[in-house]
Design a protein that fits this description.
about 130 residues; alpha+beta; flat
Length: about 130
């Protein structure tokens, strides 16, 4: 309840400004609306949430205050996972998870080093 009081106060104080935005003072009204939006975002962030609300395909990352996309839009059930290997993400049963099996070898360790490509000859030496 206490968390919604600052937001309600800001909204009530901003109502006359928002209503006056359509009259002759468009620049002043627009600036006031931006200030109100920034204040509301700041209050939401100070309370540990995101700067704005997140739609159903996203979740609020409290560490950054930003909305981040859910894999498969959050549509997978508890016994499913999102398969991102194809062009379109789909929900698949958790049992169908691909497994990598190493036969008679250890998995690679450390970074893989790639040699640089050979130098390109000058244009006069090209055929």
């Amino acid at each position: 309840m206490m968390r919604s009081i600052p937001v309600a106060v800001i909204m009530l104080l901003g109502c006359p400004v928002v209503a006056g935005c359509g009259s002759g003072a468009n620049a002043l009204g627009a600036a006031a609306n931006v200030a109100i939006g920034a204040a509301v975002g700041g209050v939401r962030r100070a309370q540990g949430g995101c700067y704005t609300w997140c739609d159903p395909d996203h979740f609020c990352n409290p560490a950054t205050g930003l909305c981040e996309r859910l894999d498969c839009g959050g549509r997978c059930k508890a016994d499913e996972r999102c398969d991102l290997s194809g062009m379109v993400p789909v929900c698949v049963p958790k049992e169908a998870a691909p497994r990598v099996i190493y036969e008679n070898a250890e998995p690679p360790k450390g970074p893989v080093r790639l040699d640089p490509p050979p130098p390109v000859p000058p244009p006069e030496e090209l055929p």
